[in-house]
């Protein structure tokens, strides 16, 4: 028996990208002028929870990057390549 695909609740979303996509969807819903107040409030509350969890994940990622960049295992003469982070100037 096939399951019906429904919009997942924020607690069921696994990846960062899934949660970010859900947050964007919620933002679009809230911006609609014809959304009932209770629905808008519910979407806002879910969005706040998602934003906080994404912020926590970003902080963890930043900490991991700091550890990797400052690792004693990397030779001091080698500087890491950061061209992905260059602004293109």
What brief labels describe this structure?
mainly alpha, Helix Hairpins, 89 residues, disordered N terminus
Task: Describe this protein's structure.
With 89 residues, the protein is mainly alpha-helical. The chain contains two helices and no strands. It starts with 15 loop residues before the first helix and ends in a 20-residue tail after the last helix. It has helices at residues 16-31, 37-69. The model is unreliable at 1-8 (pLDDT under 50).
Q: Please, how many helices?
A: 2
CATH architecture of the domain at 15-70: Orthogonal Bundle
Order of helices and strands: HH
| N-to-C CA distance | 55 Å
Radius of gyration: 19 Å
Write the layout of secondary structure elements.
Layout: H1 16-31, H2 37-69
Helix pairs in contact: 1-2
Short description:
By secondary structure, the protein is mainly alpha-helical.
